[in-house]
């Protein structure tokens, strides 16, 4: 909703300012310019990116429009999940994790905390990390290294999707110039016609440049920046998950597991000490 509101402010400000200057909004609507710029941008996006990045980009845009899935509520449920898992290890031993890892859909802990169990990316990362503990004795330093490698892959894929959108934003002003040049070519074909017709065609050509610049710096570039910020928040979240997994492997108390995981998340998602006391006593 924040992204949609921001886009509405950008578009509204441009149209209101144009109207205040005496322009007519209808003069900015030329379907041919939209087809030229939109089609060229889409074609370039397809050419420069493999299918995986395009799919990730679409998912990233949809997630950006919906908002972050790794906010404070999700962090709180993560801490509750880690606390419950650590407490079970304290009571029943490491092998008690096996049922949660091998069949997470039937795990009472994952079913209780739906933001963790219902997000297969979080659940799979958590289960894969816990499986390394269940399979045998593993040094915490080695475990942390393996988890960091997985997080690096997640981070790299986020950068690739956001980078593809940023490159498209960089190309949009150029495609706007292409649309404008095509409009001038059409204008030159009608150079012997009425003056008002020539003025209309010149105006249509200039709209191409306007649209390319507006779409680049008013929509695509900010959206790429937003995707990058949400990607960093997700990576930070997974680092918190990794810290909790390593803490469980160290055999610390459930509260200490939560404390270690809490230190990693951002201050905007971090519950206060009072909230932790209310959650875990």
Description:
There is one protein chain. With 281 residues, the protein is mostly helical. It has one domain. The protein contains 12 helices and no strands. It has helices at 2-20, 31-48, 51-66, 72-92, 98-102, 108-112, 114-117, 120-135, 140-189, 195-250, 254-264, 273-280. Helix 4 (72-92) packs parallel to helix 10 (195-250), helix 9 runs antiparallel to helix 10 (195-250) and helix 10 runs antiparallel to helix 11. The mean pLDDT is 90.
Using brief descriptors, characterize the structure shown.
single chain, 281 residues, mainly alpha, 12 helices, 81% helix, 0% strand
What is the 3D form? elongated
Low-confidence stretches: none
Number of domains: 1
Strand residues, percent: under 5%
What's the count of strands?
A: 0
Q: State the major sheet.
A: none
If you compute it from the alpha carbons, what radius of gyration comes out, rounded to the nearest whole angstrom? 26 Å
Fraction in helix: over 70%
Please tally the helical runs, counting DSSP H or I stretches of 4 or more residues: 12
What's the SSE blueprint?
Blueprint: H1 2-20, H2 31-48, H3 51-66, H4 72-92, H5 98-102, H6 108-112, H7 114-117, H8 120-135, H9 140-189, H10 195-250, H11 254-264, H12 273-280
Helix pairs in contact: 1-10, 2-9, 3-9, 4-10, 4-11, 8-10, 9-10, 10-11
């Amino acid at each position: 909703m924040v992204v949609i509101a921001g886009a509405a402010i950008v578009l509204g400000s441009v149209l209101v300012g144009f109207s205040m200057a005496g322009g007519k909004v209808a003069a900015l609507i030329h379907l041919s310019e939209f087809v030229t710029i939109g089609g060229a941008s889409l074609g370039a996006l397809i050419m420069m990116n493999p299918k995986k990045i395009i799919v990730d980009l679409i998912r990233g845009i949809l997630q950006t429009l919906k908002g972050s899935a790794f906010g404070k509520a999700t962090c709180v449920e993560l801490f509750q999940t880690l606390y419950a898992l650590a407490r079970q290890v304290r009571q029943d031993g490491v092998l008690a994790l096996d049922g949660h890892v091998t069949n997470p859909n039937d795990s009472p802990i994952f079913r209780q905390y739906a933001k963790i169990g219902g997000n297969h990316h979080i659940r799979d990362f958590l289960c894969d990390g816990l499986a390394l503990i269940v399979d045998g004795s593993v040094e915490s330093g080695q475990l942390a290294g393996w988890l960091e490698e997985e997080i690096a892959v997640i981070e790299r894929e986020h950068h690739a999707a956001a980078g593809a959108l940023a490159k498209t934003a960089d190309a949009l002003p150029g495609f706007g110039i292409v649309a404008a040049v095509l409009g001038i070519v059409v204008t030159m074909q009608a150079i012997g016609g009425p003056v008002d017709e020539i003025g209309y065609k010149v105006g249509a050509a200039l709209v191409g440049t306007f649209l390319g610049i507006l779409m680049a710096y008013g929509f695509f570039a900010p959206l790429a920046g937003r995707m990058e910020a949400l990607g960093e928040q997700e990576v930070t979240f997974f680092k918190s998950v990794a810290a909790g997994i390593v803490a469980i492997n160290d055999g610390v108390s459930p509260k200490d597991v939560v404390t270690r995981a809490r230190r990693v998340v951002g201050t905007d998602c971090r519950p206060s000490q009072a909230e932790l006391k209310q959650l875990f006593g």
